Amino acid sequence: MFEHVFRGGYRYWLLVGSLLALITAGVIAYLVQYNQGLMITGMSRSVAWGLYIAQFTFLVGVAASAVMVVLPHYLHDYHEFGKITILGEFLAIGAVTMCPLFILVDLGQPRRIMNVFLHPTPNSLMFWDTVVVFGYLIINIVISRVMYESERKSVAPPKWIKPLIYLSIPWAVSIHTVTAFLYCGLAGRPFWLTAILAPRFLASAFSAGPAMLIILCLIMRAYTRFDAGEKAIGKLAEIVTYAMVINVFFVLLELFTGLYSDMPHHMHHFEYMYFGLHEGGEVHANLAPWMWTSAVLSVVAVVVLLIPKARRDLRILGPTAGVVVLALWIEKGLGLVVTGQTPDELGHVVVYSPQPLEILITLGVYGIGFLIITVLYKIALSIREVETG
Fold first, then answer.
1. What is the pLDDT of residues 165-212, one digit of tens each?
2. What is the CATH number of the domain that holds 332?
3. What number of other Cβ atoms are within 10 A of residue 223's Cβ?
């Protein structure tokens, strides 16, 4: 199985080498953080969750999105997804592996993460989030390993795997739902205190994850002999379209509720997000350019995706999928987490900006995740290349 990892052309080894260099830089930066503490980051008492937790939130959604290829393939016998189902599960494994890593680097003392397992507290949402994330990782590893072996031997998968596949569908929904509950369960944070947060998380997840899978399929189509098929890619594009429309609708609902209510503790978060807030004779609007960029990219992506001819053109679909991922990464990877803490409980604006070492550690974690995805995809492609001769 793993012998295929050590075979490949120069493009493959260039990618692996670049990811290893990125991981090395991230590890070195993390050692500095481990020795000096979280003071090297831009976080503070007012903004205690920053870039690390934001990436955790975004990647939980990417991991959960694997259900969008698993559900049609196994529940509705949509055989066009047969080629890419294992790719969706491998993407989920890479994404869900990065999630606990971001939690780990966010802790000042990484040993404290063991308290979740040594002293479990079932009344804590953090405990249940840990259970569903690690449980989802184990489920995807088992399913993908069994399906890989079945494809490699050209035999039907064992019957016992079907119940596990069915279990993975509600489990995928649960990992992002519980993550949303972590936010909207904080009564002192009015920006997150909304019942629509979990559906909004799922809508953005079912947009970003399939969009990322489209990009990976198009890359493999261009540089390998694997072709997911235009019909499968087109169906993924339809899923992204519907989910993205719903996500934009949910964001507009949040804006209407927050602004029309004319309640300061709701309005100030949205004002900070898009226009900035005045305090001490200064306008704090460092997040506004990012959020307007996200808004424009989201609208552009929705308009393009709603045009069937544009959506079916792979030359247009690839960049559009990239726009979707970037727009949602800004929305959840920057806007959601930071805005929920600005202004703080006392109404003060404490500006948060990720610091260089913080960004380098984040890139290092992404390097680990994409290295895992690269290795797993290389293994999966070994079967496809044998099938195509």
1. 889 889 988 998 999 999 988 878 888 988 899 999 999 999 999 999
2. 1.20.1630.10
3. 12
Beta bridge partners of 277: 284
| pLDDT at position 158 over 90 | no
Bridge partner list, 282: 279
Tokens of 137: 């990782």
pLDDT at 84 (0 to 100):
86
Residue 49 structural domain: 2-388
| Helix 51-64 × helix 85-106 angle, to 10° | 160
Q: What gap in Å lies between CA 319 and CA 297, rounded to an integer?
A: 11
Q: Which two tokens stand for residue 51?
A: 């870039």
Give CA–CA dist 133/137, Å, rounded.
Answer: 6
AA letter at 262 = D
Beta bridge partner(s), residue 278: 283
> Does the reported pTM lie above 0.90?
yes
What is the domain count for the chain? Answer: 1
Which residues are CB-neighbours of 378 under 8 A, at least 6 positions away? 4, 5, 8, 12
CB 127 within 8 A of CB 120: yes
Give the pair of three-digit tokens for residue 139: 């489920």
Angle in degrees, CA 29, 60, 306, rounded to 5: 115
Residues with Cβ within 8 Å of residue 183, at least 6 apart in sequence:
189, 192, 197, 336, 340
Q: Rounded CA gap, 145 and 90, in Å?
A: 10
Sign, Cα dihedral of 186, 190, 192, 194: positive
Calpha distance 363→108 (Å, rounded): 19
For CA atoms 151, 155, 160, 163, give the dihedral sign.
positive
- Any idea which residue has 């790719």 for tokens? 87
Handedness of CA 248, 193, 41, 289 (dihedral sign): positive
pLDDT at 388: 45
Cα 9 to chain centroid distance, Å, stands at: 29
Task: Report the candidate in 106, 107, 251, 127 with the shortest Cα–Cα distance to residue 191.
Answer: 251
* Mean pLDDT to the nearest integer, 213-238: 90
| Residue 167, CA atoms < 13 Å, CB-side half-sphere | 14
Q: How is residue 284 annotated by DSSP?
A: E
Show the tokens assigned to 127.
């405990």
